[in-house]
Specification:
This protein has 98 residues and is mainly alpha-helical. It has one domain. Helices cover 63% and strands 7% of the residues. The chain has 5 helices and 2 strands, in the order ββααααα. A two-stranded antiparallel ribbon has the order 1-2. α1 packs across α2, α2 crosses α4 and α2 crosses α5. The longest helix has 19 residues. It is globular and about 50 Å long. The termini are far apart.
Length: 98
């Protein structure tokens, strides 16, 4: 990625893994501002939790989430989103904070 306004010949090193953390923050801020969380936000939070259990899951629940991480690793992101949205649609909206 070029940084044209500062160094026309320079390049910015893109770190896609940081985007995952920024998006998690965005989901929380969206809920604070709007008072709701959409199924898409919950799907992302589920995906992030499965991918980053070391940060998101209390020790006493790690064995349960280990299976979820293995399942998530077998899917591409689009397939996970589709599956998560189907599962979330079956849940009570109040349980999701919507």
């Amino acid at each position: 990625m070029r940084i044209g306004d500062r160094d026309p010949a320079g390049q910015l090193e893109f770190q896609p893994e940081l985007t995952e953390y920024m998006l998690l923050d965005v989901t929380a801020q969206y809920q604070v501002v709007t008072g709701t969380a959409t199924p898409h936000l919950w799907a992302y939070r589920c995906w992030f939790t499965a991918r980053h259990q070391d940060l998101m899951v209390p020790v006493q629940f790690k064995d349960r989430f280990g299976q979820l991480a293995s399942f998530v690793d077998t899917m591409d992101r689009a397939a996970f989103l589709e599956s998560a949205l189907v599962a979330l649609a079956r849940m009570d909206a109040k349980a999701l904070g919507a």
